[in-house]
Amino acid sequence: MAWSASTRYEVDPAPHGLALVHDLLNTIPAGRPRAADLLDDLGDAQTWVDQALGCWAEETAQVAAQVHLAESDLEELRGLRAELRRLVASRNGDAPQGVELDVAPAVHVAAAALRMDREGRVVLEPRGQGWRYVAALVLLEVFQAQRADTWRRLKMCRNTRCTTAFYDRSRNNSGVWHSTKICGNLENLRAHRARQRVRTAGS
Fold this sequence. Notes:
Elements: H1 4-7, H2 18-25, H3 42-60, H4 73-90, E1 112-116, E2 122-126, H5 131-148, E3 154-156, E4 165-167, H6 180-202
Antiparallel strand pairs: 1-2, 3-4
């Protein structure tokens, strides 16, 4: 089973359960030509949720609940995605096109319960149905990534025509492109041509 949203942009998923958050971020329409928004209609959203929860269960060796989305869940899921993208973009101080940093954050509340497992460890489990269960699972993974200091490695491509989310595996966390060959080379070429135009105009 593959993370359908991220693999279509040819990016490796984030490690462990954070891949669920990563995949949600990449349900947006991006790339050239534009890929579909996987949360645009109920059929595509249900397919994505089924695949993403299956991948999450495989990755974490946990059991995911069955989620049946309703039409009303789509706006909530898109809102959660938009807020997460805003948070990821705000770490760099410059948002890619279509991501506003100065808007008031949406409040997403999701329920979780504390439970002791068979090994005596206390674990957090998501609660709720539909979008609320998905949101609880996503926010739990964000929480765990923040504690593990891996949350800062989840970024959005600096290419404003792309904005694909990627997990920065560089040693010093300095990556800015989801693909150096694709977006990095294109942006460097544009910058080079812009500098040449300035020199030509000034000579």
